[in-house]
Amino acid sequence: MASSNSLPLYERFGHKNTLHKVMEFIILILLLSLLVYRLLSFNNHGLSWPIAFLCELWFTFICVVTISNKWNRVEHKPYPDRLLQRVPKDELPAVDLFVTTADSELEPPIITINTVLSLLAVDYPTNKLACYVSDDGCSPLTFYSLVEASKFAKIWVPFCKKYNVQVRAPFRYFTNNSKLSGHKNSSMEFKQEWKIVKDEYEQLSNKIEDAVRKSINPSDIIESDFSVFSNIQRNNHPTIIKVVWENKEGHSKQSVPHLVYVSREKRPKHPHHAKAGAMNVLTRISGLMTNAPYMLNVDCDMFANNPSIILHAMCMLLGSKSENENAFVQCPQVFYDGLKDDPFGNQMIVLWKYTAQGISGIQGPFYSGTGCVHRRKVIYGLFPNNVKFGDTNPKIINNGKSTNEELLNTFGKEFTKSAADALKGKAESPDMLSKSIEAAYQVAGVGYEYGTHWGKKVGWMYGSTTEDVLTGLSIHNKGWRSILYSPNPPAFLGCAPTGGPASMTQQKRWATGLLEILLSENCPIFGTLFASLQFRQCLAYFWILSWGLRSVPELCYAALTAYSIITNSHFLPKGQEPAYYIPIAVFVIYNMYTLSEHLRTGLSIRAWWNNQRMGRITTISAWLFGVLGVILKLLGISETVFEVTRKDQSTSSDEGTEDTEAGKFTFDESPAFIPPTTILFLQLTALATALLGLQPPARDGVGSGSLENMCSVLLVVCFWPFLKGLFGPGKYGIPLSTIFKAAGLALLFYTLCRY
Ligand SMILES: O=c1ccn([C@@H]2O[C@H](COP(=O)(O)OP(=O)(O)O[C@H]3O[C@H](CO)[C@@H](O)[C@H](O)[C@H]3O)[C@@H](O)[C@H]2O)c(=O)[nH]1
Ligand SMILES: [Mn+2]
């Protein structure tokens, strides 16, 4: 792809942020002085002093890591026009598109097919794309929906390209443009086509809705295709691979990319490795069918919102100085129809902006599971120094040699040739998908991976419920870099979980998975010591992998607050000491700092507050339980499982009544709600003790003071949703059993404090 045209295909811009850096340093200095104060006054205080010291040591360390993470924030800008000038359209590299779904109830098929349709319609030559859908739910409904969607795609894809439609997920397109009036394009032809396409989409969604409601049996419709689904159990069934649509027309205005449905074999006694397992099967099947050198993967709810995204990603992957620089391009996770002011604190807008851009300036963003384009070679375990374009003897294992035997041991028999081709950069694929179906069945079986390196050295890595971070880490360990790309409009949009329980499930899984990595042989420290992970990237990984661990110091600090008031002792400096102002200053500056991050991102004060509050709630509920989950796993008592997050169907505008309720916190029987409820009870008890003058006399003359009281009030304010939950009806109320358990724990704590 050499060309005289030497303009770069993408550029990198740094952000200066002096004010933030100054604030970060002030906070760090204040925290350090608090530590010094603790050390100087270590004697004459009880047990609360060392506990507070350890907590503050942790907070200080996290502060240092955060400073490192955000030190050089960078952004990237691609130049697709330059790419198109340099590479003729039909010489652009092929890209395989992966969509995963796992449960047709939690992940309604209409959502999945919208994602698929948006991918099929991206602005990229259709003969260079192939879309593979993995269905771990083995659901005939999902399959039926895909078959119907592929028929609709034949008018949808050409329509989008002809009129340069911006949002190519039809459900979004038609809710945003539900009336033709006010549309930019007003030609007669457009109006007619728009109406036809809209009608067709309505029919499609009605069909799927009907099928979901069981009023029609999908098997009546395409019988022969459906027989394989009869009497099938989700967790015990053979592989099903169906070429839903094969593009035999090449690249033309009317053509639609290949679409393949895959439900890999599942057997109760064989581990399936959740999403990581599904991704590896997709990698192999696509390797046999199309073997594209690049692979995009999205979760079933993450539709392509920016039709140029693949072209843009290609700029960054093809435009690096050498091919051995960037392993993958990750787009931020952005959500559509996000609730106003982020009441559940899970839209992560500030996180993606400040932290991810910062890490982008070190070795590159973490791989976050969706909205990411990988080089296939990288997924096959290649090291950057082994990649030479068209290298005839690629080395997978970093010892300089790769024999056929190595390939066989690594990838398995049926896959040796495909892997060798991909590693060599040979882009030959069979001219007919159906020719490779038989081999595809073999690589999708439960037994295929035994004796190979899938999940260990190549492919998506096993051993964590956050397989994404683990897979990205193994790539960074090899010395690869990665790129964060945040285009406007956002590349992909998905659904953020709403309601308390769904958020808790997700956060618990993340905390578990991340901690699993930290406590395994994949701990990033080894990556820095023995492999090519940069030191600051190691810190960045530590920052995310330790999310769950944060619950411990936060819980201790909250408990100390109550303990001090109940026993009339103190763990924070007293009014007459100069150190009194340290915690106050930390509190004020830290909040100004986070507030300014939110305001600069265009978010409201309310959104800032919600994020602060949910930060505290999530940490001592879901994250704490994540830690417990890992401890149980380490003790061999239980296994960690991948619980899929519920994806709510888009709340359309006519459900206005629901809106005000949507942001309200909801509860279920989950034990994760016990610790926050307990903490709330403890603070209320403590404050009541203080207000009613029931505190025992202070032992050393200095009892609890204003700082402890302020802390306690602050905690009550943070846990306000739980206070309301004590009295809320139905799902808005904390279940009685949870309340009793929490009250019991609080009483136990109180008694232990007093005696
Ligand atoms: O056994 C499984 C379980 C899940 N999935 C798919 O994995 C994706 C992510 O699941 P979801 O429940 O939406 O989890 P989230 O917490 O929203 O996902 C984030 O976190 C996960 C790791 O915890 C990553 O895998 C995801 O890519 C990332 O978006 C979905 O497409 C699922 O269909 C499977 O294919 N098989
Ligand atoms: Mn998701």
State the main characteristics.
755 residues, glycosyltransferase, alpha/beta, eight-stranded mixed β-sheet, Cellulose synthase-like protein H1, binds uridine-5'-diphosphate-glucose, Cellulose_synth
Walk me through what this model shows.
This is Cellulose synthase-like protein H1. It is found in: Endomembrane system. InterPro entries: Cellulose_synth (IPR005150), Nucleotide-diphossugar_trans (IPR029044). With 755 residues, the protein is of the alpha/beta class. The protein has 2 domains: 259 residues, no CATH class; 315 residues, no CATH class. It has 28 helices and 13 strands. It has an 8-stranded mixed sheet, with helices on both faces. A 3-stranded mixed sheet has the order 8-13-10. Strand 3, helix 4 and strand 4 form a beta-alpha-beta unit. Helix 1 packs antiparallel against helix 22 and helix 25 crosses helix 28. The longest helix has 30 residues. The protein is globular. The site of uridine-5'-diphosphate-glucose has 24 residues, from strand 3, helix 10, helix 17 and helix 18.
